[in-house]
Design goal:
Order of helices and strands: HHHHHHHHH
Helix content: over 70%
Number of strands: 0
Oligomer: single chain
Length: about 180
């Protein structure tokens, strides 16, 4: 149940940052004033009490930053700052930006196309059942003196479906013989 309250507080702080910061400053000021009042009650002068309270309390700016780091979405804020900085940089040089975006789009598109071809040709089983028919279809006469037919063992070994990678390995093995 505690994690639910923490999540609720973080979401509120995400959208009401100004109010949370003011509330934190007020709380830190209250604790510092309480410490000063205790020091004055102990017999110190006002200036000595304030100095001793600040010394025992610690650096208020550091405490403020530590508290904000615990209840804020630091990673989201940094991401937002980086995105804004990137957009400002892109607006400053539109020619370079358009070329960079075009090159990235072409690179991503080429990679997708290559991996699609590799997946469909080499990794996925071929979509027919008569694997022996492949051996016969490769047995066409050519100008070379070597036969291009593959042995039936290559087509039927290692599973129920022939894959292009298995056919390629068998043909490579055959050509090296």
């Amino acid at each position: 149940m505690r994690w639910l309250m923490q999540l609720r507080m973080r979401i509120q702080i995400l959208f009401r940052r100004g109010q949370a910061g003011a509330r934190l400053d007020e709380e830190l000021r209250f604790h510092l004033e309480q410490q000063i009042a205790e020091n004055i009650a102990a017999g110190m002068s006002a200036e000595e009490a304030r100095y001793a309270a600040l010394r025992s309390f610690g650096n208020p700016a550091l405490l403020r930053e530590q508290a904000r780091a615990t209840w804020s979405w630091t990673w989201l804020e940094l991401l937002w700052r980086d995105v804004c900085y990137g957009m400002r940089s892109l607006k400053r040089s539109p020619g370079f930006s358009s070329i960079a975006i075009l090159v990235m789009a072409l690179g991503i598109g080429a990679n997708v196309a290559m991996f699609t071809v590799v997946r469909s040709v080499l990794l996925k089983p071929l979509p027919f059942k008569n694997r022996i028919g492949w051996s016969g279809s490769l047995n066409t006469p050519t100008r070379s003196s070597r036969s291009t037919s593959l042995p039936v063992e290559c087509m039927t070994s290692g599973g129920s479906k022939a894959t292009a990678s298995r056919i390629w390995r068998c043909s490579a093995r055959r050509s090296s013989i």
